[in-house]
C-alpha cells in the first residue's frame, strides 16, 4: 500500500515539476522583448575616467579618484588590439581598474579604438616604438616619475614585453596577464590553425588589408563551438529570471561581440614572427629596425596566467620569467579561463589583491 | 601511367579513410551512449524530470565537446580550414581587382591606388625616421666624445698630451641589437617583394 502511495506521490511531484518548468519557460519567453531592449543599453566602463592624451585614433584614459594617489609610479594598462579594453573595467566589483584605483595607484588605460583601412600599414613598430613610447613619455612627464609600471593583457602583454625590452630605462615594473611569449606549443587551437602549413598570412593580409573583426570573432567562437553555440544560449535561457546573472551576461556578451579589426601589418608580423617562427624567445624578433632581446628586461616582472586558458595556454606564457634578465620575477597561476583572469570572482578575491600588494611594494 | 613514387593504392586508401571515419563515428556514439547511460544511472528517484533531463543534456554536451576538440585538431579539419581560407582569400582578391577595375573605368581612384600611395608614404616616412634616428645617434656619440675631450683638456695641465679617449657610444634610445636590413618593416617593400 505504502509503495503505491510513494509511487503516486513521486509521480505527482514529477508532474508538478514538469508543469512548473513549462510555466517558467513561458515566463522566460515573455521576458525576451524587454531583455532585448536592455541588452542594447549596456554601460561600458564602471570607473569614472578622463581622456588625458590623444594621438591619431587612440585615447589615453586616466581613472579619477577622490583620494590622491598613494604611489608615485603611474600604472599603465596596455590592452590587446583584438577587443575593446573595457573588460578591465567591466562592472563595479568586477573591475581590475577599480581595484588598482582603490589601492591608490595612479591608473591609466590605452584605448586603441577601431582601426580603419588607413591604419593597415601600421606595424608593431608603430605601436611599440611609436604610440606606447609617446604615452609612456607623456606619463613620465605628467606624473614626474622617471619610470612607469606596465600591465599588459593578452596581446597587450606581448607588446608591453617588446616595449620593456626595447626601452628598459622607462619601465619600473612589468605585469603580464595571459601574454603569449613562447609560441612553440601546439596546445592551443589558435597555434595549430595559424601554423605556416595551415595559414598563409601574407595572402590573407594582402587580400583583406586589416584582419577583419568578424574573422577573429568566428575563430574565437569556433575554438569551443559546443560552449559558445549551445551551452551558453541554453544557460542564459534557464537563468533569465536572475537579475544579477542577466546584467553580467549582457555586459560580458557586449564586450565579447565588440571585436575590432587588427591593422593588417601588425597581424602579419604577429602571426608570422610569433605564431609561425617563434622569434621572440630566440631574441630575433624584429620591431622596426631593432631586434628584441628579452634579457634586456631587468625590472621586476610578474607573470599572471590562467590554467584553463584556451586562447593563450600556460605553456605559451610560462617560459617568460626564465627568459628575462630580471632578478625579481614571480609567476602567479589561477584556476580560471582567459577572460576569467579579468572578470572572474576568484580572480578578484584572490589574485588582484596580491597583485596590488606586489606592485605597491615596488612603486 | 602510374607514378613510381606513389605506391599507395587509391582504392585501399579510400577504404582506409572510410574505415577511419566509421571508427570515429562509432566511437562518438559509444561515448555519447556511455555518458548518457551513466547520467541516467546516477538519476535519483527524488530528482524531478527537468533535473534529470539537465543531467543527461550536460553529459551529452561533455561528450560533444570532447569530440569537437579532437575534430578541430584532425587533419581532415585542417585540410578543410586551408581550403576555406584559400577560397575566401581568392574571392576577396578577385573582388578587390574587379572593384578597382570598375573605379578605373570611371576614371576614379580605387582603394588599391590609395594603398599604393600609403605604402609609398609609409616607406618615405620610415626612411626619414631611420635617417633621423641614425643622425641622432651620431650626434649623441659626438657629444659624448666632445665631453671626454673637454674633460681631457680641462684636466690636461700635465706635461704629457692628453690621450685621445676612444668615444663611448652615445646613449641610445633602445638597447638592443639592430635587425638585419632585410627585415626592415617597410610594408610597401615587403608587399612588392612577394609579388
Q: What's the alpha carbon Rg of chain B, rounded to whole Å?
A: 35 Å
Q: Helix segment count of chain A?
A: 14
Mean pLDDT of chain B: 75
| Number of DSSP strand runs of chain B | 0
Give the ordered list of helices and strands of chain A: HEEEHEHEHEHHHHHHEEEHHEHH
| CA(first)-CA(last) distance of chain A | 76 Å
Shape of chain A: globular
Uncertain residue segments of chain A: none
Most residues in contact, chain pair and counts: A-B, 52 and 44 residues
Biggest sheet strand line-up of chain A: 1-2-4-3-5-6-9-10
Q: Quote the beta fraction of chain B.
A: under 5%
Features of this protein?
heterodimer; A: 363 residues; alpha/beta; Rossmann fold; eight-stranded mixed beta sheet; two-stranded antiparallel ribbon; 14 helices; globular; B: 195 residues; mainly alpha; 5 helices; 71% helix; 0% strand; elongated; disordered C terminus
Description:
The complex is a heterodimer of chains A (363) and B (195). Chain A has 363 residues and is α/β, with parallel strands linked by helices. Chain A has one domain: Rossmann fold (3-Layer(aba) Sandwich), CATH 3.40.50. In chain A, 47% of the residues lie in helices and 15% in strands. Chain A contains 14 helices and ten strands. Chain A has an eight-stranded mixed β-sheet, sandwiched between helices. In chain A, helix 2 links the parallel strand 3 and strand 4. The longest helix of chain A has 38 residues. The relative contact order of chain A is 0.14. With 195 residues, chain B is an all-alpha fold. Among the domains of chain B are: 69 residues; 58 residues. Helices cover 71% and strands 0% of the residues of chain B. In chain B, helix 1 packs antiparallel against helix 2. Chain B is elongated. The two termini of chain B are 36 Å apart. The C terminus of chain B is likely disordered.
